[in-house]
Amino acid sequence: MRETHIIETKDLAKYFTASTNLIDFFPRAFRKRAAIKAVDGVSIQVEKGEIFGLLGPNGAGKTTLIKMLCTLIVPTKGEAYINGYEIVKSGEMVRKSIGLVTGEERSFYWRLSGKENLKFFGALYNIKLKDNK
Ligand SMILES: Nc1ncnc2c1ncn2[C@@H]1O[C@H](COP(=O)(O)OP(=O)(O)OP(=O)(O)O)[C@@H](O)[C@H]1O
Ligand SMILES: [Mg+2]
What is the CATH number of domain 7-100? Predict the structure, then answer.
């Protein structure tokens, strides 16, 4: 475990394989499929208490980078640490130490109150009700 930064990445990358449809699968079957370099060589450091903005045009790789840092997808290469935990080897500890709220999706249950939402999501993280009043 490393404790210097809350987020640290070194040359982090994620390549996807371009999808093919059935019509062009056979002629291309013996060709090497092109990789989509969604994230390529990202090295960042974020200090505790720092507000960090990640900006870029559509398709720049912002969501892919966040997905890797939240352990939803595995990097192709590079290293990343969240709260000192390496994202591949210590994925469970990373997940225990973070919370993700995405703007583009409904991250909360709209029919529950704010307090009910906190209790519900707290329960998923095994936070006891008495700690959560
Ligand atoms: N599962 C996937 N399979 C193949 N390609 C993908 C996949 N996910 C993302 N990509 C590609 O990776 C690149 C980066 O996508 P990503 O969604 O990370 O960008 P973004 O910066 O979040 O864009 P936006 O601003 O539109 O949300 C794009 O070219 C996208 O088409
Ligand atoms: Mg996105």
Answer: 3.40.50.300
pTM: 0.81
Ligand nearest to the CA of 67: 1
Q: Where are the domains of the chain?
A: 7-100, 105-133
Q: What is the pLDDT of residues 78-126, one digit of tens each?
A: 999 999 999 999 999 999 899 887 776 666 788 899 899 888 888 887 8
Distance CA 30, CA 55 (A): 38
Take atom 3 of ligand 1 and give the residue whose Cα is closest: 16
Q: Taking the alpha carbons of 125, 4, 54, 92 in that order, is the dihedral positive or negative?
A: negative
| Ligand 1 closest atom vs CA 64 | 18
Residue 72's closest CA among 88, 85, 49?
Answer: 88
Which pair of structure tokens corresponds to residue 91?
């994925």
Give the three-state DSSP class for 82. strand
Contact 58, 104 (CB under 8 A): no
Both tokens of 90, joined, read 């210590």
